[in-house]
Amino acid sequence: MDRTITNTVFFLFLLSMNFTHQIGAETKFMGKHTIHIYNRLPQKSSPLYLHCASKDDDFGDRTYYSGQTLTWNFRVNFWGTTLYFCSFSWKNYVRKFEVFRAGWDADSYRHTYSYIVNNEGIYLGYGDNPTGDLSEVLRWDDE
């Protein structure tokens, strides 16, 4: 091989190692993520209306009654820019926020984000169907 080809191959190898390192650190080697949104509003309550989307996926307007769950799986894109956001509507309340952004978990990789919706607000836990150790995302009555 002549020197130009050798240098080009070496450069491409280093470049690919850099991308692999960056992507690996960002997504822990392209692991699959899961988002759950659990409707734990009281029985016979008004339904929860959800609209979740990303740049590439739009799940449309959906209606969930007490006890129902919206779940989806995905992998972070090559550039590490994956972002999902949702609009939550219940009674006369409407709240919108990001439910996943690539890089949130750079220090402590989490595969599963579980949002619990109840009559007080929206809470976040990790893993499938968490019951304790939930963080408050927002309260319905927050302005």
Give an account of the 3D structure:
- With 143 residues, the chain is of the alpha+beta class.
- The protein has one helix at residues 3-27; strands at 32-39, 48-53, 58-64, 69-75, 83-90, 93-101, 112-117, 121-126, 135-139.
- The strands form 2 sheets. Strands 4-1-7-8-9 form a 5-stranded mixed beta sheet, with no helix packed on it.
- β2 (48-53) and β3 form a beta hairpin.
- The radius of gyration is 20 Å and the shape is elongated.
- The N and C termini lie far apart (67 Å).
Amount of helix: 10-25%
Largest sheet: 5 strands, mixed
Please state the CA-atom Rg, rounded to the nearest Å.
Answer: 20 Å
Name the helix and strand elements from N-terminus to C-terminus, one letter apiece: HEEEEEEEEE
Structural class by SSE content: alpha+beta
Tally the beta strands: 9
Mean pLDDT: 84
Determine the number of helices (DSSP H or I, runs of at least 4 residues).
Answer: 1
Shape descriptor reads elongated
Distance between the termini: 67 Å
In short:
The chain is an alpha+beta fold. It has 1 helix and 9 strands; from the N terminus they run αβββββββββ.
Record the SSE blueprint:
Elements: H1 3-27, E1 32-39, E2 48-53, E3 58-64, E4 69-75, E5 83-90, E6 93-101, E7 112-117, E8 121-126, E9 135-139
Parallel strand pairs: 1-7
Antiparallel strand pairs: 1-4, 2-3, 2-5, 5-6, 7-8, 8-9
